[in-house]
Amino acid sequence: MLDNAAAVEIALAPSVEEFAARYVRPERPVVVRGAVKDWTPSYKWTPEYLKAVYGTRSVKIGVSRNGDYLNDEERLNIGVEREVPFAKTIDAIFAPANPEQKCRIDQKPLEAWGALDEESPPIQYVRGNVIAKNIWMATTGSLTKTHYDTEHNINVQVRGRKEIILFPSMQLDELYPRSVWDYRSNFSRVEIATPDFSRYPRFSRATPLRAILEPGDFIYIPIYWWHQVYTLDASLNVNFFWQASLGQALRRHGVRYWPRMAKDGYLHTHIMRTVLDVSKSLFGQ
Fold first, then answer.
1. 87 belongs to a structural domain
2. Which residue range(s) make up the domain with 35?
3. 16-28 residue pLDDT tens
4. What is the pTM of this model?
């Protein structure tokens, strides 16, 4: 099935207005080639530089033997986050002594990283109020399984390459999301590479798209679009999540994620942030 995935559209240097009109407003994914080659992290954030500025900093990493990482309530023996020096993590990712062991830094907010935060301002195509800017790093063969996010996402490929498989947001039921009471309620139950159609027959109607990200590219993943991310080469990424509109936040995808937000203690913040954003757009500052 995935062999027949259509290619995500590729754009070359669209204007900000064209990007908003052609992709953001209609919620269509796109890869913009070479758009951030002149962005500071693209040429400055080498492994050597990162080790020089923050090598002694302790970071939590996910570890795995097969590239799949267990999360939160499922953390047992493999996938447990270990805290190690950043320099050691960089070496494990970009110059691994044991290629069989996978590791990653998963969605670490850059606001706590001083110089790295200052060197990575939002790129011009980010179209709303940035609510999170994260750094991601992973060894070759790492996998983030199929899930959707509750905000718009621009993911910038700084180093390495990634393959991303996407499915439209309208195919919520075709991807069989986990129970709303599951901590990972935004993840699919389907193993998309080897689907069991006897258990998940609606998945046969799903329509995958494929994108390959090269250094200097970014992908726009619209809110609620399913995506699975596979690290082709040791990678470094920065992503920007920006605020959904009220109408988007109240779609079924978003509301079914509220139990997770409540468990983590930020549901009230999410609701208030959305309401305030709508008020500003209607009535000004």
1. no
2. 2-43+101-283
3. 999 999 999 999 9
4. 0.90
